[in-house]
Write a structure and sequence with these properties.
Elements (H helix, E strand, L loop, with lengths): L1 H5 L6 E7 L3 H11 L5 E9 L5 H6 L4 E6 L5 H11 L4 E6 L2 E2 L3 H12 L5 E6 L4 H6 L8 E4 H5 L2 H5 L6 H12 L3 E6 L3 E2 L2 H5 L1 H18 L2 H14 L9 H4 L9
Parallel strand pairs: 1-2, 1-4, 2-3, 6-8
Antiparallel strand pairs: 4-7, 5-9, 6-7
Helix pairs in contact: 9-12
């Protein structure tokens, strides 16, 4: 992986991170992203947080902060970040990742910057087991795509449900037949809503997110999307073995 990064001379990636009440978690993500040589800029869209998320972001002087006055949902936050980004490529990261290291960002970027794929998607170690079995998480929040793919569709993105951005992005990828690299992120996990909000509030939030997915695309179309994305998946150095993908996730300190 080190050799691959050495050949990628000029950073051409804008990193966009959408956050809502992620003060306890976003600092660990920014500590990695803000220092990474492949990221030309890091943009955080604070989507109406009330917990001090913005204060955490301001502790990283090189990070650009955009603030929504009220919570509008991930789709609207992503649209703001996309519009502000200045590089040819976008790296989209969730704000609540645990175990993220510089090597994971390098691995996610490498296939697209080396021309082996047009889209790169993460496969986290706590993605649903079925996603790890097939080797593709169709709602992965960690991706690298060309800015043009999304900037041309900003009006449509603003009209999406609060959490419809990933399945909308999938539709664009499938329509254009873009080759996809799936990069396994061993030991990287995402905080569940039940961890953040408590069991019952978190469960309700998970169901609201699922309902938004169904607003963006019919349930049967989700299966179709997964199959079509799978058909676009390419072989590349960052792909992992079946045994590595299904390994039980490790716990991380919060």
């Amino acid at each position: 992986m080190t050799g691959s990064c050495a050949r990628l001379d000029v950073p051409r990636i804008s990193c966009v991170i959408c956050a809502f009440n992620e003060a306890p978690r976003i600092g660990a993500v920014l500590a990695v992203a803000a220092a990474h040589p492949l990221l030309a800029e890091v943009i955080v869209v604070d989507d109406g947080s009330t917990d001090g998320t913005s204060e955490v972001v301001r502790a990283f002087p090189g990070v650009r902060l955009l603030s929504h006055p009220s919570n509008q949902g991930k789709s609207a936050a992503m649209a703001s970040g996309i519009a502000a980004a200045q590089s040819e490529w976008l790296m989209l990261l969730d704000a609540d990742l645990k175990g993220l290291g510089a090597q994971h960002i390098s691995a996610l970027a490498a296939p697209v910057l080396a021309g082996r794929a047009e889209v790169s998607m993460s496969l986290r170690q706590n993605s649903l087991l079925i996603f790890r079995i097939i080797g593709l998480d169709f709602v992965s929040g960690e991706r690298v795509v060309r800015k043009a793919l999304l900037s041309e569709a900003l009006t449509e993105i603003h009209g999406l449900p609060r959490f419809g951005i990933e399945v909308f992005m999938n539709r664009l990828i499938i329509t254009r037949g873009l080759p996809i690299a799936v990069t396994h992120w061993p030991h990287v996990t995402q905080s569940r809503k039940t961890e953040k909000l408590g069991y019952w509030r978190g469960l309700r939030a998970e169901w609201r997110m699922i309902a938004d997915l169904f607003k963006a695309v019919y349930p049967m179309a989700l299966l179709s999307q997964t199959c079509q994305l799978f058909s676009l998946r390419t072989d590349h150095a960052e792909r992992a073995s079946f045994a590595a993908r299904i390994r039980k996730p490790r716990d991380h300190a919060a």
